[in-house]
Amino acid sequence: MKKLVKNNVYWIGKVDWELRKFHGDELSTQNGSSYNAYLIQEEKNVLVDTVWLPYADEFIANLEKEIELHQIDYIISNHGEVDHSGALPALMKRIPDTPIYCTANAVKSLKGQYHQDWNFHIVKTGDKLDIGNGKELIFIETPMLHWPDSMATYITIDNILFSNDAFGQHLASDKLFHHLVDPCILFKEAIKYYANILNPYSHVLRKKLEEIISLGLPIDMIAPDHGLIWKENPMQIIDRYAQWANNYQEDKITVIYDTMWNGTKKLAEKIAAGIEQADPVADVRIYNLAKTDANDLVTEVFKSKMIVIGSPTINSNILHSVAGFLHLLKELRFKDKKAVAFGCYGWSGESVKILNEMLADAGFTVIHDGFKNQWNPDDKKMTEAYAFGKEIAKA
């Protein structure tokens, strides 16, 4: 069933209430998501994006209830990733000659995935498409937000920016607009989305935000391809992105660890207590990596000014859970964040050195050699761990 967005613009996507993992198993989506597609019905009928492949048949059946498929004049493919283009193969079997407007890189993506030579029309930033009734679509390339093929599409008069993956959230809702849902959940999902997907391209995003603003286009709504549409004061999410893209951090210190026999856990708690005593204003939190959602934890790192990370030594190395998480942090390219390492060991004690090396390689500024403890920490070592927390907080 389509839903009215504005005037002759309709949402015709799919709400995925059951989605819990995305990008394979890389990203957690505890609140589900949506695949937002849009139907514009002016003198020309335009379909903006589609849905993920598992919902292709349902999508086309719903689309047919609203418009005879051969009456679709243009298809806009803002991004070739399968969650937005998955229904295209089935749709194009029905209307094979319908022109698809997309970037040159999107042609490569769509051909590479579906092995079809559809009626592609390549567009660049500033190109326009007349859809009648005085309205035009204006295309804006947004490479690396978050694929090289990405773009946004703007409709004049209605002043809606179809932003694709930018400004979205993985959040299933029966509502269409952001102001109708709990803002705490909305912005929690929005910042998680940014931290886990868009942060590596913050330097690109800063320039692209400036470019979008320089175009002088009035924006009454921002309609992303996941989550809620920004209707009331839509520029607020652009303002948030401008903050998040500028090496964002809060007055927050996050202690992260995994443990084998709880020695490293004891250190984590005592170090955190020392930090809290020395910096009572900072938000200090402790997370057991093995018992915490990795993507939620990435969001906490994104918000932190410093992380303190611990692992015991095992096989002259660190726990694979910690190694994998540090690899993920390296992928996400955080900037201007400090880090400290700690851990227990029984025999050889390499973990802190390895943690320091991996943290530095991931772009963190390591401010201390770290804290090591052999065997299970006794009262003396717990006191030293507390003092260590105070020391690094002051640093």
Task: Describe the overall structure.
This protein is an alpha/beta fold and 395 residues long. The protein contains 12 helices and 24 strands. It has helices spanning 56-66, 82-85, 88-94, 104-114, 183-198, 202-214, 235-244, 263-278, 294-303, 320-332, 351-361, 379-394; strands at residues 3-6, 9-11, 14-16, 21-22, 27-28, 33-35, 38-41, 45-48, 74-76, 100-102, 120-122, 128-132, 135-141, 151-155, 160-164, 221-224, 252-257, 283-288, 306-310, 313-314, 317-318, 338-345, 365-366, 371-374. A 7-stranded mixed β-sheet has the order 1-2-7-8-9-10-11. Strands 17, 18, 19, 22, 23 and 24 form a 6-stranded parallel β-sheet that branches. A hairpin with a 2-residue loop joins strand 20 (313-314) and strand 21. The longest helix is centred in the middle third of the chain and has 16 residues, at 183-198. It starts with a strand and ends with a helix.
Mind telling me the C-alpha Rg? 24 Å
> What topology, given as strand order, has the largest sheet?
1-2-7-8-9-10-11
Mean pLDDT: 96
Q: For the terminal residues, how far apart are their CA atoms?
A: 57 Å
What is the assigned CATH homologous superfamily of the largest domain?
Ribonuclease Z/Hydroxyacylglutathione hydrolase-like
**Protein structure class:** alpha/beta
Domain count: the total is: 2
Which CATH class of the largest domain?
A: Alpha Beta
The main sheet comes to:
7 strands, mixed
CATH T-level fold name of the largest domain: Metallo-beta-lactamase, Chain A
Helix content: 25-40%
> Could you name the ranges where pLDDT drops below 50 across 5 or more consecutive residues?
none
> What's the count of strands?
24
User: How many alpha or pi helices?
Assistant: 12
What's the architecture of the largest domain, going by CATH?
Answer: 4-Layer Sandwich
| Estimated share of beta-strand residues | 15-25%
- What's the shape? elongated
